[in-house]
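Lab manual, section 2.4: Encoding a predicted structure.

Procedure: take the sequence of the chain (210 residues), apply the prediction step described in section 2.3, and record the output as structure tokens. A sample record is shown.
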Amino acid sequence: MVFRYVKECSSNVIDKFTNVVSSIDIDSCAHAICGGALGVLSYDFLKNFMVVGVAGVNYYGEAHLSPWNAWIHTMCMPFTVYGMLYWIPALFNLREKNAKKIMTILYHVYGGHYIKVDKWGALMYYLWYYNVLQQAKKNYTLDIRKLDNKNETTINTRKYLLKKGLCYSGYGLIFQEVVGHMIGGDIASRPEAVLNAIVYAMYFSANHMY
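Recorded output:
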């Protein structure tokens, strides 16, 4: 009886383990590892061009001192990033499969860089922007299929995806600048800090409250 029970339990465990392993997307794991590694390497590379790490985050924070402005960025940056995940693949005229690869790699490039800044901060970034990544993947695919069903040309499909992505990113940034900076009383975004903002805006938006 005992041997039979152990055998059945072992069989169930093996079956469950097999199901879990078979459900793992190997490609996604490879892209995540590749993106994370690039992100970690970017930390030292970017030192040649800008202030990185906690000092880089603090530099970005100098233009976002009011709680109002900081929270506006927390609420609006996901829309800006969503747009970026659209227009970057569209810029290279990528179909849904390769677009998803690029989105995943970009997501983990930032995560890898942020791990070098602070592991807790990186975790908060991963949690805050995970749904943004998933929605971008899903909707990019749906939009391409919708346009394919309408027999749209490749050029028109690319224009549509580019326009949609740029609108999300552009309107999100304008809203943050006008409603966040101006109403919040902070200084305007600094042209010389554009690279800093590209690197640390997401980190700040997910971590300024801690």
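Check your result against the sample. Residues 119-149 form the longest helix (31 residues).
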